[in-house]
Amino acid sequence: MISLDEARSRVLNGVGALTPREVDCERASGLVLAHDVVAGENVPPFANTAVDGYAVRSADVASVPCELRVIGTLAAGDGSQQRVGTGEALRIMTGAVMPDGADAVVMVEDTETLADGRVRVRRTVTPGTAVRPIADDVRAGDVVFAAGTVLSPAGAGVLASINARRVAVYPRPRVALLSTGDELVTDGSPLRRGQIRESNLTMLDILLRQNECEVENLGVVVDDESTLERVLLEAARSCDAIVTSGGVSMGDFDVVKAVLSRLAEMQWMQMAIKPAKPFAFGLLTAGQRKIPVFGLPGNPVSSMISFELLARPALRKMMGHTRDLSRPAVRAVTDAPLRRKQDGKVHFMRVFARFGDDGRVHVRDTGPQGSHQLAATAAANALAIVPDGNGVASGESVDVMLLGGALDIVSVAH
What we know:
The protein is α+β, with helices and mostly antiparallel strands. It has helices spanning 4-13, 153-161, 200-210, 225-238, 255-263, 300-318, 374-377, 406-411; strands spanning 21-24, 32-33, 37-38, 48-49, 53-56, 66-74, 88-92, 104-107, 111-113, 118-121, 131-132, 143-145, 166-170, 174-180, 184-185, 196-197, 214-221, 241-245, 264-270, 273-274, 278-286, 289-296, 329-334, 338-339, 346-355, 361-365, 382-386, 391-392, 397-402. It is elongated and about 90 Å long.
């Protein structure tokens, strides 16, 4: 057996970032920028008001209450030239261009409209009050986002605001997903003796999409070597990676192992972890490219955990990520014992994590920990990393990998 670190090193060393391409800014959220983004425009491009109110000369309202003559109204988007003179005020709406002569805005709540076309101002303002100056957010020539930045939805909005309509990013990998096994049933028909319902593809399809991958779900491929070989070669020509489920254990008599051993440069690994001990990784040549193949175990929990520990970090590297390839980990305290037996392996136990009143993350197991028991795993939002031994007693500390993020834990705290 090899350590998880050794297996992860082999996998990560076998993949590289995909070739960057340009995409519309609306499709860039969640992706990694391949080049710096430099602003070509100021944001905002003109000084404007931050509130609804009256544009005034601050010197005219140095003593209040006072009355000013209203010379008109200016709405956002109105590009007409306006000028505020001594003793005058201009009714102005949020986002409208500040008129010449005015240096501040009085909020409408601090005024009273009079019947003779005048306004009574009840509060003084200083120069710049409620005014957004030109380039207050972004200045032309600034590096708004550095290469390597993971663009957020707000970031995509910034790109639109500076007219960066297309940007270079590392693309979402197109991942072919498949499973083999004549025992797997997908059409809802009654089970015959020896058959089981397919679940891994359903789970893995969602996990891949949640991690910004595009999925070509090829479904269940029959146990026939020539059929599987054709499917794999076609997938390698159109996709950036292949994920298979099942047929990677030692001693398996399975077409996956037979075909991949023939087509690809494969490494069949046995890791010192539980579950997800077996894992396969290799490179399948397609023209000038070498396509990564991730062979996940068939047991549902093992399939999920090996995806999280090995396939997901590699796919993130392919998407240009250089940090945070793995899920975040925290130190947590156990609310109940995490029991296990000594077997020379690190156990990844499915746990429910929450924030306690002490500000720490607290965990307890979600139930049966068998590699086939997906129902208990469905309640887990974290994996406790339990070293070899007899487990962790209640109240002791344990390292925990969060399957979501800290906010997901907050949302289920009580």
